[in-house]
Design goal:
The protein has one domain: Glucose-6-phosphate isomerase like protein, domain 1 (Rossmann fold, 3-Layer(aba) Sandwich). The chain is globular, with a radius of gyration of 16 Å. It is of the alpha/beta class. A five-stranded parallel beta sheet has the order 2-1-3-4-5, sandwiched between helices. The chain is 50% helix and 13% strand.
Length: 182
């Protein structure tokens, strides 16, 4: 296989996955992100890397965002929002964090393939795509959960564009919040 062919396959797969995202679920998540006094985010493995990148962009937008597990993450409080990104919705460490946040009165949102998994059942807001519920589930030639991770990253980047618009934020304003210690 040549690079152009492989790249085309990846693009088609990601486009197919993102086409399953429901507008009303995205709108509900945006409303929660904008209403939350503070936003906590968590994901494991490669999903965690995409989630961490989104946490950074939320900070660039001027929103109080924290990635769970960082040494500077404060205590979660009632009314805060925890966004759990988990393809399966059953990753043990993510289930534990969701349960702890719920016990502390935080609202929970999730982006997942499985809305009926433990985290989805605990969540006020669920954005589901590539799920078993969809009989048109996107098949992938890519290894393991690569397609979910890629699609999640782009879904979160699309949320950034929507948040920029709703907050009236320009790239210049965001750039002013970017680290200057590099």
């Amino acid at each position: 296989m040549e690079f152009g062919t492989a790249a085309g396959i990846v693009q088609q797969e990601v486009a197919g996955a993102l086409s399953q995202v429901q507008e009303q679920q995205v709108e509900a998540l945006l409303a929660e992100l904008l209403a939350a006094p503070r936003i906590f985010l968590v994901g494991a493995g490669r999903v965690g890397l995409a989630t961490r990148a989104f946490a950074m962009r939320l900070m660039h937008l001027g929103l109080p965002a924290f990635f769970v597990g960082d040494t500077t993450t404060p205590a979660i409080r009632p009314g805060d929002l925890l966004l759990v990104c988990s393809g399966s919705g059953e990753t043990r460490s993510m289930v534990l964090v969701a349960d702890l946040a719920a016990q502390r009165g935080a609202d929970i949102a999730t982006i997942t393939r499985n809305a009926t998994a433990h985290i989805g059942r605990k969540s006020k807001i669920v954005v589901e795509f590539m799920g078993e519920r969809n009989h048109d589930r996107v098949a992938s030639v890519q290894p393991m959960t690569t397609l979910f991770e890629q699609s999640l990253f782009l879904l979160l980047d699309a949320l950034v564009l929507l948040l920029m618009e709703r907050l009236g934020q320009s790239e210049l304003q965001m750039r002013q919040r970017h680290t200057n210690l590099e």
